[in-house]
UniProtKB/TrEMBL annotation:
InterPro entries with a match to the protein in the record: TFIIF_beta, TFIIF_beta_HTH, TFIIF_beta_N, TFIIF_interaction, WH-like_DNA-bd_sf, WH_DNA-bd_sf
Record domain TFIIF beta subunit N-terminal: where: 21-116
A GO biological-process term: transcription initiation at RNA polymerase II promoter
Residue ranges, annotated region (Disordered): 173-193
Gene3D superfamilies, sorted: Winged helix-like DNA-binding domain superfamily/Winged helix DNA-binding domain
SUPFAM superfamilies, A to Z: Rap30/74 interaction domains (SSF50916), Winged helix' DNA-binding domain (SSF46785)
Source organism of this protein record: Anisodus acutangulus
Coiled coil: none
Full protein name: Transcription initiation factor IIF subunit beta
GO cellular component, one term: transcription factor TFIIF complex
Keywords: DNA-binding, Nucleus, Transcription, Transcription regulation
Domain TFIIF beta subunit HTH: 194-257
């Protein structure tokens, strides 16, 4: 493959020797991804061997060996630094997905094809660890609500920038009146400032306590957050109803519904 960047001598060569190698694509919770990255970083600093971050257990029903649904995949976490994180997860396999390949780029700018995606999984906490996972979510939400106060030292202690200078009183009064008369109207082109992720999750839980289903437009108006940033949070916390009476709305995933109810009771 060659890419023309305006220079006839510039090209990118892709190594395709491993194109037919089968790989798995898996979507995992953020806390699992951080744990694996932490284990890989600590292992790379101590030795050259790759750490065992987990193992996949495959269960087969012998009475339905010809049925693809008879296969059950479970991820068991490895390592000793997982803390209070659930140790067992279910891997839900997708039957239909767009064919994909995995590309990697080295530090020298070399691009290689690592293989083609044969299976795609969605990693969720196992049923027996669901209560433990809900407890961890509640703790994360409570920690995000704690605000650390900070004290900032001002170098200029004469207060020049804190009090109006002589001759500026009339200017300040007139400018404040003008602001009251011509209040800015917020339009759709106004950029919205992102909130802290933990604070926004807490707001979302409270909104879904008020009513179980929301459209994206309603949530943007309620939270005053960018739609794209809001979608990232919704993809983690909610499911999107594509059909039925609640078509076009979001509602909390089952594990978060229980978490929100427990938090409200507390």
């Amino acid at each position: 493959m060659e890419e023309d960047n305006g220079n006839s001598n510039s090209s990118i060569t892709v190594d395709t020797t491993k194109w037919d190698r089968s790989v798995w694509l898996m979507k995992c919770p953020l806390i699992v991804s951080k744990s694996w990255q932490s284990q890989a970083a600590s292992s790379s600093s101590s030795s050259s061997d790759s750490p065992q971050v987990g193992k996949v257990v495959v269960s087969v029903d012998p009475l339905r060996s010809d049925d693809s649904s008879a296969l059950q995949f479970t991820m068991e976490m490895g390592g000793n630094d997982v803390g209070n994180m659930p140790k067992s997860y279910s891997l839900n396999m997708f039957q239909d997905f767009v064919p994909m390949c995995v590309l990697a780029e080295t530090g020298q700018g070399r691009v290689t094809m690592e293989g083609k995606v044969e299976h795609k999984f969605d990693m969720t906490p196992h049923t027996r660890n669901m209560e433990e996972y809900r407890k961890m979510c509640r703790e994360r939400t409570n920690k995000s609500m704690i605000k650390n106060r900070q004290i900032q030292v001002i170098d200029n202690d004469r207060g020049v920038n804190m009090r109006p200078m002589p001759g500026m009183m009339g200017m300040i009064a007139s400018s404040s009146k003008d602001k009251k008369k011509a209040a800015p109207v917020k339009g759709p082109e106004v950029k919205r400032t992102r909130r802290d992720r933990g604070e926004l999750e807490d707001i979302m839980f409270k909104l879904f306590e008020r009513q179980p289903n929301w459209t994206l437009k309603q949530l943007v108006q309620e939270t005053d957050q960018p739609a794209q940033f809001l979608k990232e949070i919704l993809n983690e916390l909610c499911v999107y109803n594509k059909r039925g009476t609640n078509q076009g709305t979001y509602e909390l995933k089952p594990e978060y519904k229980k978490s929100a109810e427990d938090t409200g009771a507390e």
